[in-house]
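A quick aside before the break. I want you to see a complete sequence-to-structure record at least once, exactly as it would be stored in a machine-readable document. Don't worry about memorizing anything.
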Amino acid sequence: EVQLVESGGGLAQPGGSLRLSCAASGFTFSSSVMSWVRQAPGKGLEWVSSIYSHSSNTYYADSVKSRFTISTDNAKNTLYLQMNSLEPEDTAVFYCAGGGCATPYDYWGRGTQVTVSS
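That is the input. The structure line, written in tokens, reads:
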């Protein structure tokens, strides 16, 4: 059974940091494309970042470039998102997604809430 379980969300102040984790099981994590996707209140899904686990190539939305860093630990089958310089506009439910190169969003976690507020 495929499982993606996010953790690490919470409340942060503007300018603060959070680190999200996504524990994966049930598929070949080390050869997958892993992504973070978020949904702000009242808005649709927004792609945030992706990483090719086998090559560590990374990609970012312009809105988070230079503030967020995506990474993986293939030994632990875990995806991370280090979020720095958080802004109120980053408030959203963050989802972990994974799959193959042709179908990178086959699997989804249940999401973790990130709230940025003073």
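Two observations worth writing down. Residues 17 and 84 are 4 Å apart (CA to CA). The radius of gyration is 13 Å. We'll return to this after the break.
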